[in-house]
Automatic annotation (TrEMBL):
Classification via Gene3D superfamilies: Single-stranded right-handed beta-helix, Pectin lyase-like
Annotated protein name in UniProt: Pre-neck appendage protein
Alphabetized InterPro entries for the sequence: Pectin_lyas_fold, Pectin_lyase_fold/virulence, RHGA/B-epi-like_pectate_lyase
Domain Rhamnogalacturonase A/B/Epimerase-like pectate lyase intervals: 101-333
Length: 400
């Protein structure tokens, strides 16, 4: 499925000018003009409040100032965010310097009869490898990807990584190897990852808490690309870009050990227990041409599943969403934070279609959005252009 073309066609049916580069840029500039006028008015009325923070090696202050330059077509055929050239340069280094290997040369079984986890580990070694995965189904019990590593399949419909039944519930399908030391230059492309939440009984929650149980987790990663990947039946999130540690020290604080410069492109996720694609305590994230649909909601108690297609969550900064689609979720796009964390800050939405989602979008800072609540210090900077809200909205058993 060509997700880019699919999503563009559906959005253009409601916004005809969205189809052309000129129309897209015009819409972005108009939104930016209005946003700048609002920002100038808000700056005049802003009242700064002094607070004392108990910080630590794991927690830092959230700096809620300075918005990213708006994404634009300019002279390129594709929408570009301002930090993409830096990402391309880093991934170019990976391509030029890494050794190319096949996972078959290390004993992987494409017929899905034996566990191939060790073969992947040997193929990746300590990094500096581009690991090609051919057509077939490969059983794994979770992969930990080191720095300077690419895993490239033959295509989403040809290469499948399937978690074996005995894999612990807390295990992610794929994550980076070093959480607190961090990793750099990771590329995942051209395969389906099936976390297979059916391994657990229907009455059992599919996630074990924290950042566990997701399909793909990047925690404390700089410079990463996830492209043309399908994630099925994840216990928690389809894809989670996050930090190695979560801060809940209050609004105005955020976590260290953050991820940054991550592009999630042409990813499809379905059957996820919580959210399709989500970000936490990370900077400079670009999510484009993705299709997130039909969650299971099984990470939560039945009837209380706030399962969103895309969720830009606690402490996220400088996130761009472009040409995405959500369907049959509780929420299409949620930009939020919990009460004791900083809100997502500086988010651009450029082209989105929400179909049969119970709630197309939800922008909130929990504990700071009612009249008697303390005003949020960080919930600001959302720009939305060509956002279709609510095609065939319906009530869902996921929530309520």
């Amino acid at each position: 499925m060509n997700l880019k073309v699919r999503n563009q066609a559906k959005i253009s049916a409601f916004f005809p000018t969205y189809r052309s580069s000129e129309g897209l840029d015009k819409g972005i500039r108009m939104t930016e003009h209005l946003f700048t006028k609002w920002q100038e008015a808000d700056d005049k009325n802003e009242r700064k409040k002094k607070r004392k923070w108990l910080l630590s090696l794991l927690v830092t202050r959230a700096q809620a100032n300075g918005f990213s330059r708006p994404a634009a077509i300019e002279k390129r055929p594709l929408l570009e965010v301002d930090w993409q050239p830096l990402l391309f340069a880093e991934l170019g280094t990976l391509k030029d310097e890494a050794e190319e290997v096949s996972v078959l040369d290390y004993g992987a079984d494409p017929e899905g009869k034996i566990d191939s986890t060790l073969a992947f580990k040997r193929a990746m070694r300590r990094g500096g490898r581009i690991v090609y995965v051919p057509k077939g189904t490969f059983l794994i019990s979770g992969l930990k990807v080191p720095s300077n590593t690419a895993i490239i399949g033959a295509g989403e419909e040809l290469t499948t990584l399937l978690l074996i039944k005995e894999t612990p519930k807390k295990r992610q399908g794929i994550r980076n190897r070093n959480l607190f030391a961090g990793n750099k230059r990771i590329r995942l492309e051209g395969f389906t990852l099936n976390w297979d939440s059916s391994r657990f009984g229907e009455s059992e929650r599919s996630a074990s808490g924290g950042t566990s149980s997701s399909g793909i987790t990047l925690a404390h990663v700089q410079f990463a690309l996830i492209r043309k990947v399908k994630v099925l039946n994840a216990g928690l999130h389809g894809v989670d870009v996050t930090s190695a540690f979560y801060s809940y020290r209050g609004d105005g604080t955020t976590s260290r050990f953050r991820s940054a410069y991550v592009w999630i492109d042409q990813v499809e996720a379905a059957g996820f227990g919580d959210d399709g694609v989500t970000t936490h305590h990370s900077d400079f994230i670009y999510i484009s041409h993705c299709f997130l649909h039909d969650p299971s909601g099984r990470a939560h108690e039945k009837g209380f599943s706030n399962s969103n297609g895309i969720e830009v969550d606690d402490g996220s900064r400088h996130v761009v969403l472009h040409n995405n689609a959500t369907e049959n979720c509780f929420g299409g796009v949620e930009i939020k934070a919990h009460e004791t964390s900083s809100a997502a800050y500086d988010t651009q939405i450029i082209g989105h279609i929400s179909s049969s989602d119970n709630r197309s979008f939800n922008f909130r800072h929990i504990g700071h959005h009612k009249g008697e609540d303390e005003e949020s210090q960080t919930a600001t900077g959302i720009r939305a252009t060509f956002f279709n809200c609510g095609v065939a909205r319906f009530h869902t058993a996921l929530y309520g």
